[in-house]
Design a protein that fits this description.
Length: about 425
């Protein structure tokens, strides 16, 4: 599945210098085998998707070794917020929260189908039904995959997997509704996040960075986030354009076939139009598959790593803030020593701030290196799969039109 593929990417490292370029090796996942999380099933009830989260573990802190719970999207957001809000995770890249399930496109076409039942030809109605089913299934599979990726990344991370909130999410059998945020809190949170994202780049770019490693990563991530955001937008536009092409081709195929069926007095022309309409109908199926692959292999990949890059930015912002806090408390400590007042309290605050900054710096170094490896492996795999889909689609269409031309020559003899 797409989710398993992303996790394998996340667990892939490059060979050190001196080994063959492009070769890869796997991280030792012996410990990650002790906690396996997956989404075994999902059910959409009136636009509320309920995910069945299954856990298999050998860890002693879990009373059961094989269990499952039902969770909604809002509960996934609750879990994400627990990691974001916890100071002990300040030095780590928090996996992006999964996107909200979106079935609006299918619902729009369903409304069109219901309103046009009596006006549309039966063949066109059948095609629209199939199109709706196909789009709904693709959207449903995608939302399941992205929610599963979020959980697997948490469960595979040696630090993040130890959080009590994750254990609560995985084993608490009742609804977490009492722990979820209200609508007003979510609205305030969304506004705060938007404002925070606006100033993050300014904080990073305007703050002097003495360490070469972090200065280099800061410059790269800021540029990378902008580029990948533009690429994600361009990919979404391309997917929509192909979907529009598929829709237009489907309509043209239906009308051309219908026109061929009405030209009974012109046998040859009637056969040609029906044959061409049938070929275009097959092209629609091929293009539809490619559009789904583009959305899954490219658009989703770009959106995911856009959000992951933003998570890396947030990590570096937290480090900058920790450095400012360390500097502030150090100055306060010096002032306290000069005044001879509250020296112990000031010294304790300065020591704690320094320890926090050093801990964030240490973990952030490893996190940013892992981010690079995960990103490179993911894009390499995604681009290869996308290219393979394009090649297969081109071959299928070439073979189809070649056979169609042969058939038309036979008809017109």
């Amino acid at each position: 599945s797409h989710s398993i593929a992303l996790c394998k990417m996340a667990a892939t490292e490059e060979k050190p210098e001196g080994e063959a370029p492009g070769a890869t090796k796997s991280v030792d996942l012996a410990d990650t085998e002790s906690l396996k999380v997956s989404i075994a099933d999902a059910l959409n009830e009136q636009d509320v998707v309920k995910f069945t989260v299954q856990t298999k573990t050998t860890l002693d802190r879990f009373p059961k070794k094989d269990f499952q719970v039902t969770r909604t999207h809002e509960e996934f957001l609750w879990l994400h917020s627990q990691y974001i809000d916890s100071p002990k995770h300040a030095g780590y890249i928090i996996p992006p929260a999964p996107p909200k399930p979106d079935f609006s496109q299918s619902h729009g076409k369903l409304a069109k189908l219901q309103s046009g039942d009596s006006e549309m030809p039966q063949e066109e109605l059948q095609k629209l039904r199939q199109e709706i089913q196909s789009e709904y299934l693709a959207a449903f599979q995608k939302t399941v995959a992205m929610h599963e990726v979020f959980l697997i990344r948490l469960s595979m991370h040696p630090h993040l997997r130890e959080d009590q909130s994750l254990q609560t999410f995985l084993e608490y059998e009742k609804d977490l509704s009492d722990k979820k945020k209200s609508g007003m809190e979510k609205a305030k949170g969304a506004l705060f996040t938007a404002m925070t994202n606006m100033v993050q780049g300014d904080i990073l770019s305007t703050t002097s960075e003495p360490e070469e490693f972090f200065a280099r990563n800061r410059d790269f991530v800021l540029h990378y986030h902008k580029i990948i955001s533009d690429a994600a937008h361009a990919s979404e536009v391309k997917v929509k354009a192909r979907a529009n092409l598929v829709s237009q081709l489907s309509t043209f195929s239906t009308k051309l076939t219908h026109l061929g069926n009405t030209q009974a007095n012109h046998h040859v022309m009637s056969d040609v139009m029906r044959k061409c309409g049938g070929a275009i109908s097959t092209v629609v199926a091929i293009e539809k598959k490619l559009a789904a692959k583009e959305d899954l292999k490219m658009s989703d990949l770009l959106r995911y790593y856009r959000d992951d890059a933003n998570a890396a930015k947030e990590l570096m912002v937290r480090r900058v803030k920790a450095h400012k806090e360390m500097t502030r408390t150090a100055k306060e400590h010096e002032k306290a020593k000069l005044k001879g007042k509250k020296v112990i309290e000031a010294q304790s605050a300065a020591t704690q701030a320094q320890a926090t900054y050093e801990a964030i710096t240490k973990s952030a170094t490893t996190e940013l290196e892992t981010f690079k490896k995960r990103r490179m492996a993911a894009f390499r795999k995604g681009l290869i799969h996308y290219a393979q889909c394009q090649i297969k689609q081109s071959k299928d269409e070439y073979a189809l039109w070649k056979q169609t031309l042969i058939s038309m020559k036979e008809i017109t003899k």
